[in-house]
Amino acid sequence: MECENEIRRELQMLLSGLSCDFCALALKEKDSGALKWTVVVGNLNERCLNMADPPNRGLSGTVAKVGRPMTLQVSELVRSRDLYNYPIMISEKLRSAYAVPLMKNAKAFAILLAGDRKRRVYRPDERSAAIASGERLLNLLSGIPGQMGQANGCL
């Protein structure tokens, strides 16, 4: 599908631009409120496409709830005993990630995730690049009737 290809291109550009290992877009399902990983690049396996973060847990409980970008480090999640709430980090063997919420009407309906399989501190210019990519994805998704806030439609 054309919109999925455009999303994949945007994720691939971010992956190359940040020299990171993994990029993904999760959309919030309208009925359940779970975040479902819809388009991924740099993935080790296909398991992540079958994963959903339950409402108020993991990324939907932090990034989506707070409504601002966040850095995630596996070492901190292990210390806080919260790693199990981030199955995408485990499945893709990510050590560091930067997550950007895509907002519509002051609510997050999607999450853009860039991650690395090594410990990494994202520089301000890298965080800005991820935010800009999130804005482009928001514009792309906003142009799809019926897409906002649901994981169906053209995807």
Automatic annotation (TrEMBL):
Organism equals Cohnella soli
**Which SUPFAM superfamilies does the protein's record reference?**
GAF domain-like
Lineage of source species? Bacteria, Bacillati, Bacillota, Bacilli, Bacillales
* UniProt protein name: GAF domain-containing protein
- Location of the GAF domain: 8-128
Signal peptide range in chain numbering: none
